[in-house]
Amino acid sequence: MSLAAPPRPAAPPPPARPSPGSRFTATLLRWWRRLTAMRTAIVLLFLLALAAVPGSLLPQRSLSQGAVTEYFAEHPTLAPVLDRLYLFDVFSSPWFAAVYLLLFVSLVGCVLPRAVEHARALRSAPPPAPRRLSRLPDSAELPTALPPAAALDAVEEELRVRRFRVVRRGGANGPELSAEKGLLKEAGNLLFHLSLVGVLLGLAAGKLWGHEGSILVTEGQGFCNSFQQYDTYSSGALVDSGDLTPLCVDLEAFEAEYEPDLTASAFTADITYGAPGEEGRSTTIGVNDPLRVAGDRVYLTGHGFSPVFSVTLPDGTEFTDVSAPFLPSDQTTMASQGALKLPDLGPGRDGQLALEGFFAPTGLVQGGVLTSIDPRPLAPRVAIVAYEGYLGLDSGIPQSVYSLDASQIDSGRLTDVGRANLSVGEALTLPDGTEITFTGVREFAALQYSSDPGQGWVLAAAVALVVGLLGMLLVRRERFFARASAGPDGAGSVLAVALLTRGSGDAGPRLAELTADLTAALSGASGRPAAAHRAPSPDGSAPRPEDASRDT
Amino acid sequence: MTPDPSLAALSDTLFSVSVAVYSLAVVAFCAQLAFGRRPARELVAAGGAPAPRTGADDISSDVRSPDAPADVPADGTAGEPGAARRWGLLALALTVLGAVGHAGVLVARGLAADRLPWGNMYEFATAVVLVGVAVYVVLAVRTPGLRHIGLFVLAPVVVAMVLVGLFLYADAGPLVAALRSSWLAVHVSTAILGFGIFFVSGIASGLYLLRSRPEEPRPGSLVSRLPGAAALDRVAHRTAVFGFPIWTFAVIAGAIWAESAWGRFWGWDPKETWAFIAWVVYAAYLHARTTAGWRGRPAAWVNLVGLGVMVFNLLYVNLVSTGLHSYGGVS
Ligand code: HEM
User: How far, in Å, CA of A440 to CA of A322, rounded?
Assistant: First the structure.
């Protein structure tokens, strides 16, 4: 990678063929060159963008297992085919990985040689001026009354003020000067591209060593960080369950606040936390405000209500304070659905009991149908259906704790024995005399425990990335050449000057600016008013072939 | 807090006013382009605004033969008939006036609801369009030759505003809990800035594609009144170069916010995915601009794809798909 090469007299490049035995290496090398060409980078960038598209149009397991299941139900023939193509796991699919790994190999292959070259450029002087400066796309001639050496002195002075690195050479065509600035642009480019690799490595570390678990916790209850306790969890391939940070969290109280128009304005959970067996510390977490301990985090990701019941069997056995979280199906009214399972009713009763129903924090019954009209628990009501029979919990097939197993109902093993709309204090009496009382409601919080050891690295790499990007895009890299020759009338001299820029592609206006200043400096140094100079047109709009050798 | 109804109503009125003023600006830009190709004496004969023959205007318009619609210089309106120039200035003034009203829409909203005025799609889209207009005004003031693209910026602006007003409108209201974070200011403001800048960049690339077609534009046609192809390409590139770090920052700020709001900094939520896709496409555009074989028209197409992705991200992802970013407020 070098700055635009000045047009050179055509010299046929000798086709340096490697020795006949190394055709394999030559092929490899050719492929490597092709892979690390900018053209390939563009194609791979496009492929990466394209590869991400299905990940946003189709449901993804990583986002919502439920949505994928639903898709399978709706498209029973198509879904398995898509699944075979990893289209429900796009971002962990082998083909997505193939695209970004190729891109990153290309990037490293492209950037490392540039880094070496850049290190060399930092230490070496700006290259000599091309032979015919007037052939460069942006060039000008400045006549001056000064003799050549003094004229170049004035130019050098002016360039140094502008923080160019300057060398003077006595070339065959007269004394000349080469100047260069903006090496930081290249440094920024390298930093940016290598930071991308850093982001990828950080992401990979997080995937391998990170874990995440979520759980619903009702007020007064808690959990500890172990995979057995979570409702759902995922963990990286290199996570050893023995290495999890020992931490327990108890939910003391949950509070939701609302604006007058019932927009939720704040959710907060008062928790105590600490190592198992330790005296816990108290704190409050909320939306946008997790608990951070030992590099791990505990989030409040949602909330809901657990209606509380008491059940009195005909023989007088009483179960008080039984409850289960009902999951909100509508976040604006907190209308919720759930199930309460009582598999063990005590000795002598082999039938099992279950409630399935609908909970409304502020219920309104119209025509026998319960709806929720307010997310706050102002007038809690439940609409429940009671079932008796066999729940199928020990059938070996895992079932959701939030609903009953419909197949047990369909097969008649679980039978509908009564239904009612209840507000707090009201009871439903079943045919066998069992009494189910709706005694109140407690709030639960959805908590998530996250551990991602890579994220600090990703953040650092992202900061480096932005810094590199700013350096790359804001710094202008320029080379300036000047050559002095004797003036046409023998007095003074004529300076041929030329400017090359990279990236911005607007050398014309820049050169016009620079030559104006140089002319002023020259006339200042010679004590004579500036002579008119042949400057480039300031608009610089004429289509002009840009630097040709950008491709690496 | 309950939104202040009179301020909210003021905001809605200002919205209509700024659409009206922008529409007038479009008319004035049309006049600029129309008069720009007619010799001055025809103007008088046609009963239009007579161009008083005074000073510098005259000199510049007389320098060239009025029949030869030579290229519009990229960095100056010198060669332009006086009437056209005045229409152009009027159009620019109307644009600025419209932008002031447009900014008023957001300020009044913000005051009405006592929060940053970008909490739903209506406000977000309105702010993006405002940034687009502001970027155009800055370009037009700094480089008078670029005033000629005004019609092509303001016409989409008017269309976008009308569509936003019709389909994305949401009442002024309080923010949901998840949006109550100082990252709203950082993430959403930078996203708006980046989007607005890319909007102008995309238009410049689109015009470049029109201007750089191999066949010469018909003399006197709209296309022939545009700045030169190289100037358009340069504007497109410069704005994209300006927008890219801002967009990069917006994505990173979003990731930082997601880490504290959703428990992970990146989860391929649809909005995140499309922000990433847009970022990759703009990176491809910047690469294409400096790669032999991609420079010029192919690169301009890439820039247009980038703008398409941005718009898709705004509309499709907010309105059709479901994800964590469902703060659109459109029902
Ligand atoms: C993850 C993928 C990549 C991204 C996001 C990316 C992004 C960028 C961006 C934004 C620029 C700035 C362009 C400008 O100066 O206007 C750039 C420049 C550059 N990139 Fe990449 N790049 C990636 C991969 C690559 C690869 C694979 C290569 C090599 C094959 C490469 C080589 C270069 C070079 C040589 C430049 C400097 C162009 C110049 O200033 O002349 N990049 N890149």
Answer: 10
How much is the average pLDDT of A29-46? 85
| Long-range contacts of B289-294, Cβ-Cβ distance < 8 Å, separation of 24 or more | B289/B237, B290/A38, B290/A503, B290/A550, B291/A38, B291/A39, B291/A42, B291/A550, B291/A551, B292/A548, B292/A550, B292/A551, B293/A39, B293/A551, B294/A39, B294/A42
- Give the β-pairing of A174-181 and A211-218: unpaired
Distance CA A88, CA A54 (A): 9
- Distances in Å between the Cα of A135 and the Cα atoms of A9, A33, A131, A551, B210 are 11, 31, 9, 22, 31
Cα–Cα distance, A275 to A225 (Å, whole number) = 10
Which of A214, A213, A226, A211 has the alpha carbon at shortest distance from A444? A214
Query: What's the Rg (C-alpha) of chain A?
Result: 38
Spatial separation of the C-alpha atoms in residues A397 and B249, rounded to whole Å: 48
Residues A306 and A439 reside in one and the same domain: yes
- Give the contacts of A230 (CB within 8 A, at least 6 positions apart): A213, A214, A215, A223, A449
Q: Let me know whether A268 and A386 are in one domain.
A: yes
End-to-end CA distance of chain A: 5
User: Ligand 1 in contact with A110 (CB < 6 A)?
Assistant: yes
A140 and A103 belong to one structural domain: no
Query: What domain range includes position A69?
Result: 36-121
- Contacting B residues, span 194-233, partner chain A, CB-CB under 8 Å: 227-231
Distance CA A162, CA A176 (A): 18
Q: How confident is the model at residue A61 (pLDDT cuts 50, 70, 90)?
A: confident
**pLDDT for B9-35, tens place per residue?**
888 889 999 999 999 999 998 888 877
Question: Which of A102, A121, A140 is the last residue in one of the domains?
Answer: A121
Residue B325: the pLDDT is 61
- Do residues A401 and A325 share a domain? yes
Q: Is A205 helix (H, G, I), strand (E, B) or coil?
A: helix
Which of A45, A288, A541 is opposite residue B230, by nearest beta carbon?
A541
Q: Determine how many CB atoms are found less than 10 A away from the CB of residue B145.
A: 24
Compute the residue count for chain B.
331
Q: Answer yes or no: do A135 and A108 share one domain.
A: no
Domain shared by A296 and A405, yes or no: yes
Task: Report the C-alpha gap between B151 and B22 in whole angstroms.
Answer: 10
Q: Which residues contact A127 (CB under 8 A, 6 or more apart)?
A: A178, A479
Out of B259, B277, B292, whose CB is closest to A550?
A: B292
Helices B297-319, B229-261: inter-axial angle, 10-degree rounding: 30
| Structural domain count, chain A | 3
- In this structure, is residue A293 part of a structural domain? yes
Atom nearest to A41 CA in ligand 1: 27
Q: What is the spatial distance between Cα A250 and Cα A67, in angstroms, rounded to a whole number?
A: 31
CA distance B289 to B278: 16
Residue B71: pLDDT over 50 = no
Q: Are A146 and A531 in contact (CB under 8 A)?
A: no
Coil, helix or strand at residue A191: helix
Is A461 within a domain?
no
Q: Are strands A165-171 and A414-423 parallel, antiparallel or unpaired?
A: unpaired
Residues A162 and A53 occupy one common structural domain: no
Specify whether A284 is located in the same domain as A177.
no
ipTM metric: 0.82
Partner A, chain B 174-193, Cβ-Cβ below 8 Å: 174-178, 180-181, 183
- Written as one letter, the residue type at B124 is F
DSSP letter for B174, please.
Answer: P
What pLDDT was estimated at residue A346? 75
Question: Which residues make beta-bridge pairs with A478?
Answer: A181, A501
Atom of ligand 1 nearest to the CA of A40: 30
Q: CB-based contact (8 Å) between B138 and chain A?
A: no
The CATH number of residue A505's host domain is 3.30.160.110
